[in-house]
UniProtKB/TrEMBL annotation:
It comes from Aminobacter niigataensis. It is an enzyme of class 3 (hydrolase). Its EC number is 3.5.1.25. This is N-acetylglucosamine-6-phosphate deacetylase. SUPFAM superfamilies: Composite domain of metallo-dependent hydrolases (SSF51338), Metallo-dependent hydrolases (SSF51556). The keyword GTP-binding does not apply.
Length: 385
């Protein structure tokens, strides 16, 4: 296909408004504009033809896919497999996520991320290092033997890693990381998220002032909203500079709780969707291992032997469908939860999350039933149903 072409659809959502019977003009991997279908310049190849075309989805928490966990084989090939496993579900930008592991595995993951960025790997946005600097009291499925405080070497490694890739996000707990360390990381461009913590609202606010800008999987593995202590969950909703990821599968968070949080969230930062996907995505696996422990897949849940939730058996289009059909969210807003809002959370909103002039031509073709029928990254079709 030429470097300049069109993608047609019955409706195109640009991130703000819908355009009926329209076409997206793509040139050299970027969006040139949206025109009426009949106004496509003569001679341009026209792709698509589906019911809807929307901005590509962005997932900031993806632990695995295609049968692999990042922890098991932290190299560039695994990152490629994980990114490709999300494409059939409309995800065009991914932060492959390392769950708490050894310093050696963490170093290998950072090196793999630098290699993926150097290759300009399709779909690779950067890394999310979830741990090891967490709280034992809110460890969730993280191996308690591997959780530890952040030291100077850890801090230096994160700062060096940030320079090698577009986005570096790390989830930490105030129990294991100081506010001074958070400020140093944030000043260096690392996105710092609070999670797996029993921290108080007051402490969370102090860390937000130091530069923490996100909360990891809202309501899960964190201090909850109480009558006298709002906890991290309350801080994430109340503090306007905090973004927060939300696992919308109806298992991790009750639908009513989701609606309360979405209605109450103070801005300008937003709640956005994450999948917390594991190795099962794109496969029929019934179980897999994490840090030597078996995780079972059953009835839409992923659990350790003791029943602890261990990530999610969720893809992004299913999360959007849940928000639209179960929660009752307007479709455009449900799509923004998976595109524009995560882009804003990691400072990528000027090139991702919209189908607007100069933005990356990352787009998803949807059917009337919200199934993915085509995915483009930088103007190249990477999935066709």
């Amino acid at each position: 296909m030429s470097d300049r072409f069109a993608i047609a659809a019955g409706r195109i959502f640009d991130g703000e408004a819908w355009h009926e019977n329209a076409a997206l003009i793509v040139a050299e991997g970027l969006v040139e504009g949206i025109v009426e279908r009949d106004a496509v310049p003569a001679g341009l190849t026209v792709a698509g033809g589906g019911a809807m075309l929307v901005p590509g989805f962005i997932d900031l928490q993806v632990n695995g896919g295609g049968g692999l966990m990042l922890n098991d084989k932290p190299d560039a090939d695994t990152l490629d497999i994980i990114c490709k496993a999300q494409m059939p579900f409309g995800t065009t930008a991914v932060l492959p996520t390392l769950i708490t592991d050894t310093p050696e595995i963490t170093r290998s993951t950072i090196a793999a991320g630098a290699e993926a960025a150097k290759r300009k790997m399709p779909g690779f946005l950067g890394l999310h290092l979830e741990g090891p600097h967490l709280s034992l009291s809110r460890k969730g499925a993280h191996d308690p033997k591997l959780i530890r405080p952040m030291d100077g070497d850890d801090e230096a490694a994160l700062i060096a890693a940030r320079a090698t890739m577009p986005v570096l996000l790390t989830t930490v707990a105030p129990e294991s990381v100081t506010a001074g360390q958070v400020k140093t990381l944030a000043d260096a461009g690392v996105v710092v998220s609070l999670g797996h913590t029993d921290t108080s609202y007051r402490t969370a606010k102090q860390y937000a002032e130091a530069g923490a800008s996100m909360a990891t999987h809202l309501f899960n593995a964190m201090s909850q909203i109480g009558n006298r202590e709002p906890g991290l969950a309350g801080a994430a909703v109340d503090i306007g500079t905090f973004s927060a990821g939300l696992i919308a599968d109806g298992i991790h968070v009750d639908p009513a709780t989701m609606q309360i949080a979405l209605k109450a969230k103070n801005g300008p930062a937003r709640i956005f969707l994450v999948t917390d996907a594991m190795a099962t995505i794109g496969t029929d696996l019934k179980s897999f291992t994490l840090n030597g422990r078996t995780i079972k897949r059953e009835n839409g849940r992923l659990t350790l032997e003791d029943g602890t939730l261990a990530g999610a058996d969720l893809d992004m289009i299913s999360a959007i469908r849940f928000m639209h059909e179960t929660i009752g969210y307007d479709l455009g807003e449900a799509i923004r939860l998976a595109s524009l809002y995560p882009a804003e959370a990691v400072g990528q909103e000027k090139r991702l999350g919209r189908l607007a002039k100069g933005y990356a031509a990352n787009a998803v073709q949807l059917t009337d039933t919200l199934d993915v029928s085509g995915t483009w990254i930088d103007g190249k079709k990477v999935f066709s149903a």
